[in-house]
Amino acid sequence: MPEILSAAACNLDANILAACLPLMEESRLEAIEWSFDALFKVQQIPSWFFELLTAYSNEQRLIGHGVFFSLFSGKWRQEQADWLKQLKKVREEFRFDHVTEHFGFMTGRDFHHGAPLNIPYTKTTLDIGRDRLKRIYEACECPVGLENLAFSYSLEEVKRHGGFLEQLLEPVNGFIILDLHNLYCQIHNFNIPFEEIIRHYPLDKVREIHISGGSWENAPNSPLKKIRRDTHDDAVPAEVFHLLENTIARCPHLKYVVLEQLGNALTTEESRTIFYNDFGKMENIVKKKNTPGISSYQSFLPSSPVITGKIIEDEILHHQQLELSAILESATSCGEAIQSLTRSSLAHTAWQIENWEPYMINTAIQIAQKWKK
User: Is 133:174 a contact under the CB 8 Å cutoff?
Assistant: First the structure.
């Protein structure tokens, strides 16, 4: 029977590599997840890192994780075409067991730099997302997946997210990365129980699970409420390990459980020791759950040829995304952003801005302005 593998996000970052090295030396890092597009502008990958990637690639234990494609941009960008060309080149050098991307569209003028934020769940966004996933599959020729989003504007979005992911992935028979810290953010920010939120996800589509840490921030005008952010800059909370224990057995085609943390949070010996211990906790949970029959093979490859036609775009969506990004990047307060949104082209549309929680609008402002800087 297939095994569930314990893995870590391992990129060309001195701090991440220093944290992962003891696990490699002990032969415990069973697979690595590489954010391949972070190196698209690097002229030459260092030989030692190339050898590391090659070693895992040869064992079919290398998985690729994209960051900058911006799946739902309403207008097709040259940056997206370049991204796909680069992915094809990378595929010629390394064999990915699968490739994944983030859900959402990137804030920022060119939609190639920023943070992923949610989109309205409409036929237009469904068609654009499916079109882009087909193009990613065409470029990588391996299973393609999407990661659930940590950010939502409303409880209604939270409840619809899993079903929309399932619809998106259908043409490429794709899979879901179920990021449990992202789920933890939604559970806390919208006060929804785990047993309720998990019912909204097609768990037979989960091939990979992420765990990570994050941070808290105060909600504006509500000192008793704190917002959970997926900032990847701290240890894994005990609650996320608990979610892992309660989720693995529900995912019949799970293959990888991946620990993520940013390099700028692994600068001290203490932080790297915590990372090492977090990996051990994750590894122990996986081993306990790794009993015969816990996971079954699913190729997550299309059952028929994937055909891409004319690139799908939508000018109205593009304009709305530009307008939303401009509002979030320039707002000096949540109140100002809400006033601007009510006067914008997003008002009384499928974006449903009238139902957005003010504290999540404020979070979106902080996300957009952080990435703009």
Answer: yes
pLDDT score of 127: 98
CB 257 within 8 A of CB 248: yes
Q: Does residue 176 contact residue 182 with C-beta atoms inside 8 Å? A: no
Question: CA-CA distances (angstroms) from residue 235 to 231, 292, 347?
Answer: 11, 31, 39
pLDDT in tens, 127-171: 999 999 999 999 999 999 999 999 999 999 999 999 999 999 999
Contact 313, 284 (CB under 8 A): no
Per-residue pLDDT tens over the stretch 224-253: 789 999 999 999 999 999 999 999 999 999
- Residue 190 DSSP label: T
How many Å apart are CA 108 and CA 147, to the nearest integer?
20
Bridge pairing between strands 31-34 and 62-65: parallel
Q: Which of 318, 302, 277 is nearest to 74 (CA)?
A: 318
Angle at 23 between CA 21 and CA 26, to 5 degrees: 110
Distance CA 136, CA 310 (A): 15
| DSSP secondary structure code for residue 345 in this structure | T
Contact by Cβ (8 Å): 230, 185: yes
Asked if 257 and 4 count as a contact pair (C-beta separation under 8 A), the reply is yes
Domain positions in the chain are 5-313
Closest CA to 187 of 218, 159, 220: 159
Q: Does 349 score more than 50 pLDDT?
A: yes
Residues 55, 87: contact at Cβ < 8 Å? Answer: no
Q: Are 228 and 214 in contact (CB under 8 A)?
A: yes
Q: Looking at this protein, which amino acid is placed at residue 284?
A: N
Give the sign of the dihedral formed by CA 137, CA 325, CA 109, CA 315: positive
Task: Using CB atoms within 10 Å of the CB of residue 296, give its burial: 0 to 12 exposed, 13 to 18 middle, 19+ buried.
Answer: exposed
- Strand 256-259 and strand 5-9: pairing? parallel
Gap between the Cα atoms of 21 and 32, Å rounded = 12
Q: Is the pTM of this model over 0.90?
A: yes
The CATH superfamily holding the domain 5-313 is Divalent-metal-dependent TIM barrel enzymes (3.20.20.150)
Give 8-35 pLDDT, tens digit per residue: 999 999 999 999 999 999 999 999 999 9
Tokens of 194: 């785990």
Q: Which residue has the tokens 């890092």?
A: 29
